[in-house]
Amino acid sequence: MNSKTASQPIVVANAPASSSATRFSIGGLFRRPEAGAFLGLFGVFVFFIAFGSIDFLKPAGAASWLNVAANLGIVAFPIGLLMIAGELDISIGSMIPAGSMTVAIISGYYGLPIWLGIAATLGLGVVVGLVNGFLVVRTNVPSLIVTLGTLFAVAGLVLGLSVLLTGTTSVALKAPELAKFLFGQFVANTFQVIIFWWLALTAIYIYVIHYSPYGNWIFAMGGDKISARNAGIPTSRLTIVLFVLSATSAAFVGMCQAILFNSAQVSAGMSFIFNSIISVVVGGVLLTGGFGSIVGIFFGTITFAVVNQGIYFTTFDRNWSSLIIGVMLLLAVLMNNTFRSMALSYSPKKK
Amino acid sequence: MSTPILKLRNICKSFGPIDVLQDISLDICPGEVLCLLGDNGAGKSTLIKTLSGVYRPNSGTIEMDGRPIEFTGPRDASNRGIATVHQFGGTFPLMSIGRSFFIGVEPTKGWGPFKIFDRKKANEIAVKAVRDFGITRIEDGDRLVGGLSGGERQSLAIARAVHFGAKVLILDEPTAALGVKQATHVLRIVNEAKRRGLAVVFITHQVMHAMAVGDHFAVLIRGAVAADFRKGEKTREEITDLMAGGETMAELEAQIDGYMATHDGHAPQHAGASA
Ligand SMILES: Nc1ncnc2c1ncn2[C@@H]1O[C@H](COP(=O)(O)OP(=O)(O)OP(=O)(O)O)[C@@H](O)[C@H]1O
Ligand SMILES: [Mg+2]
């Protein structure tokens, strides 16, 4: 980043008056989609340091919320992109256990090679994503309804097949060394390896969404789908790709959990639906589409995870944590609305 | 009259049981402005959507430069040099001016698979294009489109089409939201595009605007070409009558006068009254 900024003036040296393109300003930061999420995260840190202890910033404490954030974050990115594009996907709630069970049944119960289990898990994600995507694009039924349908269908399928094939709803899995190393180890005994996947994915998403030309397409689609199509954006294909991404990401998270904990259960994942939506909205994504950012979703996820785990570092009864999450969500949304209207009404000062 | 760049022959388009376009045959020539006129619901927007690749006609052929073509989609049409400003939308309120200007044709810098969106270049070109258009209040390409006025957004959309319209420029009621000055500017732009040899298709409900730029006029009534004539072949009154869907203006005025007389000088309360 720094080296790029440094080289920019050379590029524009002979360009006509590009008044404020490179000017840095505090106001400019507040107009960014992630402004609210950043302040929210800051506020939450201050809150838990004040009422809890500094312990939750030390490695052992940080691991507790980083582990939550990483598992949630990998799903929150595609959910956020779908929301920016004007769609929702709640079938992730059953795709996470579906991912766990697929790899556990194939490689645990039947003892087939782990790579087969992994391929089947990701393949299942692609298939469910394609089903969601095609249904949404072809039928014009709102994606909330379509994915509500697949949420239950997949949950039923996983439960039915697990009982039919294994006779139980919980399957053990003993993954070989390499798979364990890549997907399911505790680094330094506390940090789940999925944290590194999450950080790498964050970098990739930032590049694709904010720097490559394709990100533009997603924002255009969420802003005005018909105009985007008229401008030549393959909106249908893009919608399907995003649904495949979210279902596959959810299956991936489920698979990593199964490999990490050496077992898979049929019911684990419904909480991800609300949690990912909260993270995304706290992260500054507009529920109705067209506005948001990857960095915002990243901060939103951490904020959620800190609130979710931070309560254990305070003297409060943990029953209060939902109250804190609810208040935080409302505050974040109000703040994001304010910043968005600031961004809309912004025009540079006359010089 | 030069050789047509686009030739429509017997274009029909229906949505389910509703026939919207019937047997449309038209020639669109470079260096000319075709004014497409007609009542609300006559099928003007539907016709230009078949020209910009949004709809596929049910039957009939489109020829471009003498060869029959079938647009696979809006992108195909724009790649062939047809740029369209549709009647509604076309701008993205929560996107920046620079980004929305280049949707689908993003300028990039960098190499190989690591090309990145060239925000600076996009902003510069977009701001320059809009400023050339007379909207000098816009200086910063990072501003969000939603912060602009309706007319400024319209100007942005037209500036975009002019920027990308290599051969054919299609404007669906471009002056509808504009102030007098900006509307005049659109007419100037149309004339300038014509002078540069572009073919322009211009839809309007304003006779004055049509007469100011049109070389060639086609009037649609209920999806069929009711009249197809060149500049100077019809008077303003005749054109007005055709634009009102065939009823003469005098008849309409008589209806209103009659209504006013029987209702103590009150204008009709709702649109249905004169139907
Ligand atoms: N997607 C669609 N499905 C069904 N009917 C349609 C569709 N699009 C247009 N129509 C019908 O086709 C007819 C012509 O519509 P069109 O938008 O082309 O009119 P127009 O001449 O552009 O009118 P206006 O001056 O009001 O813009 C209308 O009766 C409309 O109801
Ligand atoms: Mg129309």
Automatic annotation (TrEMBL), chain A:
| Localisation per UniProt entry | Cell membrane
Looking up CDD domains in the UniProt record yields: TM_PBP1_transp_AraH_like
Where are its TM segments located? 35-54, 66-85, 92-112, 118-137, 144-166, 186-208, 238-260, 266-287, 320-339
Topology term for the membrane: Multi-pass membrane protein
Any one GO MF term held by the record is:
transmembrane transporter activity
* Top-level lineage group: Bacteria
* The name this protein goes by in its record: Xylose transport system permease protein XylH
Give the species this sequence originates from.
Shinella kummerowiae
The root-end lineage is: Bacteria, Pseudomonadati, Pseudomonadota, Alphaproteobacteria, Hyphomicrobiales
UniProtKB/TrEMBL annotation, chain B:
Its transmembrane ranges are none
Q: GO molecular-function annotation terms?
A: ATP binding; ATP hydrolysis activity
Q: Which UniProt keywords apply?
A: ATP-binding, Nucleotide-binding
- Domain spans labelled ABC transporter: 6-247
UniProt xrefs under Pfam families: ABC_tran
Which SUPFAM superfamilies does the annotation name?
P-loop containing nucleoside triphosphate hydrolases
Q: Which PROSITE patterns match?
A: ABC_TRANSPORTER_2
* PANTHER family the UniProt entry points to: CARBOHYDRATE TRANSPORT ATP-BINDING PROTEIN MG119-RELATED, SUGAR ABC TRANSPORTER ATP-BINDING PROTEIN
Protein's name in the database = ATP-binding cassette domain-containing protein
Question: From what organism does this protein derive?
Answer: Shinella kummerowiae
